[in-house]
Description:
The chain is α+β, with helices and mostly antiparallel strands and 375 residues long. The protein has ten helices and 17 strands. The protein has a four-stranded mixed sheet.
Amino acid sequence: MPWAVGGLRLGRAWVAAPDPAALRARWAALTGAEGTERERLFRPTRSRTPTTGAAALPGRRSPSTARFADAPGPCPEPLRVLRDPFDEQWLLPDQRLIDLARPELWRVLDEHQLFAVETPELLVTAHLPAGRLGRIRPLHRRPGGAEPNLAPGLLPLLGERYGGWVTPQDVLCWILAAGRPGPRGYEVPLTGDPGRWRAGLELGHRLLTVQLRGGPGAEPPRLPGGRRPYVRSAVQAWPDGLAYDPETETLSLGTGTVSPVPPGAWEYEVQGGTRVLEAWFAARTAHRDPGADGLEALGPAEWPQAWTSELPALVTTLALLADLAPERAAFTAGPPLPAAELAAAGVLPPPRWSRRPASVLDHHEEGPGGQFALL
């Protein structure tokens, strides 16, 4: 996947939140403030201040491309994003508020796109990654699922080698099964054995289905044996903490409980030994932290029911990934595909153009101050 993009740099934490209503309240507070108070709430950086001009984000109806200080416009509709590993939150999609928005990613963001995110564990998401996650590799270089972000010549070579049609998503599934972090980044061995390819494809498809939580129009994955996490009791007041009882497999959020929660889901960790469920809870209580100030302190006064409803799907995802971890760790690619064969097919090295974004501009994009963007 030659084309890679660095992660978005938001520059100010208040533009993203687990609750879309909180983002609308922050926008209202910011646009209702004036002078130095608006400046303080905005949290200016070298890249963005209230007087900085910015273009509209591709594919989004920006409230305005005038300077924020002159005409903020109406609140943009919050967009679902991947903020942290396995944590889907919301973002205010306005380039005037984001230090480095990576417009090239927004141009290829649609219902056909998948993003591979390089962390110690490769993440795949259908949402725009918008956190401190790692390098982002879109599966497709153009909207509509057109032009795979793969080394030219790779798909025909693999199809001939393995005796069947190979799709871009097949390659992504193989990466999930066989790829590993290495000294040069995320390294993916290619096998010369068609049997190993089919085995890796089967494992990778299961991993992909779990990470996407089934995906659009597909049944969400379930735990084996007919087990299914349920919200056993609702959160009646703001929970003062998160607790887990391994004997009853119960996750408690104050008075609220979810069970069964397999131990593998509770223990699932990412990036530096952080438990995903604890990080998920911490993100939703950050606005109540005594150190939170400004717009970041604006959040729901009561625990939203939607957050509790998210938990069973997250628990299922983590439990299934924990179950698949030993199989993935034991998977090997077998005898490698010879590098000379890849070079002869023109796959290696990938041409320079494949490492750059494609030209996908088939419509006008509004630049700063309402001018047309010239790309």
